[in-house]
Amino acid sequence: MKIDIKNAIELSKFKNKQALFEKIKTDLHNKKAEGNEFTAWVNLPSTINNDEITQIKQTAEYFNKNTDYVVVIGIGGSYLGAKAVISALEPEFTNTNSPKILFAGNNLDQDYIHNLLQFLDNKNYGIVVISKSGTTLEPAISFRIFEKHLIDKIGNEAKNKIVAITDKNKGALLKLSQQKDYKTFVIPDDIGGRFSVLTPVGLLPIAIAGFDIDKLIKGAKNIEKQTSINSDNDIAMQYAIARNILYLEDKNLELMTSFHSKLHFFGEWWKQLFGESEGKSHKGIFPAFADLTTDLHSLGQYIQDGQRILFETVLSVEQKNNKLTIPKTKENLDNLNYLSEKEIDFVNKQAEKGTIKAHISGGVPVINISIEKIDEYNLGELIFFFEKACAYSAYSIGVNPFNQPGVEEYKSQMMKLLKK
């Protein structure tokens, strides 16, 4: 992967920040920074337990042979990473030989849950429930409902089709799993939810969906090496420094954009990673995501000509996985024959280049991040790149990247209203 920050900041400002960020990097790697008890992910790609990977693959194979659908129940970091990777890789309109992954527990929408239950009435399905405590409201409610539905449907066989990913030593979900003999995987104590994609939290659903987790991990390992404590060309640091400079210039909103619809849920994962890590003590850059060219027809006017409070990070893909050309017509009523026999991706890339030029001319700083193609390896690179950059960024504005006190406040107010 590559990064280009020249259209976002001045090089002299970048150099002035390097010493500060080198210290941040050193403290992060040496576990001297605030929240260091949740930083095991920093070396995770190269320290993943091979026995656990084998168990993940065996469990995925079981679901592959015995189910057509798997409901993954979780919220926030317990589902967004898996959702990002799976939606980027799976075909939209055709079935694969692997179980189709469906998601629940990420909302309290009664109609959604009801409709999903109806869909599953005559389907062969299993459940993967992800929760460290087992008491987070949204997934806990959904798990109660789907567990009962599956047991009512297939009886004692249900215990073979329910897997829990939870705390190693404590919590309601662990206790329930032990009582009912559900297979379990561990959410590590020293890795927070939004940094957990490369643990069973993300790897098991991705493997069940039929994708190569070894390649995902290999991509992450490459960025781990590039951002190691001894690396002198840390691309995650380049991104974090550029963000920090722009933030101090009152660019308080980062709009990530991509001209590739398969990366939509990657943008959703990125929003949670940065929003929950940086947004504390009335600080932080607000993360937003837009699908282009689609959202150029809704947000494009504001980006180009609205308040100059934002900067843009464009996530580019160099190669497409499929080829499709524009046909020539005899009538040419739409005047598009000048594009005939050209690939749609050629047009899309010119739209991307033109949009970047337009936004720069309109006073929008633009960071460009590019990957070769959308596959497991490149997604693994992106995941670890953004995790590392996020930690640097949060520390640079003096906040702990690994807690979420604001989330706890909404939960407290909600529980009062529910009269718990």
Describe this structure in words.
The longest helix has 21 residues, at 376-396. Helix 11 (264-278) links the parallel strand 7 and strand 8 (286-291). The protein contains 15 helices and 10 strands. The protein has helices at 11-29, 44-47, 50-66, 80-89, 110-120, 137-154, 172-180, 200-208, 213-226, 235-248, 264-278, 300-305, 344-361, 376-396, 405-417, and strands at residues 2-4, 69-73, 100-104, 125-130, 162-166, 183-186, 253-258, 286-291, 310-317, 366-371. It has 2 domains: 2-32 and 219-405, 3-Layer(aba) Sandwich (Rossmann fold); 42-211, Glucose-6-phosphate isomerase like protein, domain 1 (Rossmann fold, 3-Layer(aba) Sandwich), CATH 3.40.50.10490. By secondary structure, the protein is of the alpha/beta class. Strands 1-10-9-7-8 form a 5-stranded mixed β-sheet, sandwiched between helices. A 5-stranded parallel β-sheet has the order 3-2-4-5-6, with helices on both faces. The model has no long low-confidence stretch (mean pLDDT 96).
Q: Topology of this protein?
A:
Blueprint: E1 2-4, H1 11-29, H2 44-47, H3 50-66, E2 69-73, H4 80-89, E3 100-104, H5 110-120, E4 125-130, H6 137-154, E5 162-166, H7 172-180, E6 183-186, H8 200-208, H9 213-226, H10 235-248, E7 253-258, H11 264-278, E8 286-291, H12 300-305, E9 310-317, H13 344-361, E10 366-371, H14 376-396, H15 405-417
Parallel strand pairs: 2-3, 2-4, 4-5, 5-6, 7-8, 7-9, 9-10
Antiparallel strand pairs: 1-10
Helix pairs in contact: 1-10, 1-14, 3-8, 4-8, 4-11, 9-14, 10-14, 11-14
List keywords for this structure.
10 strands; alpha/beta; single chain; 420 residues; Rossmann fold; 15 helices; 5-stranded parallel sheet; 5-stranded mixed sheet; 2 domains
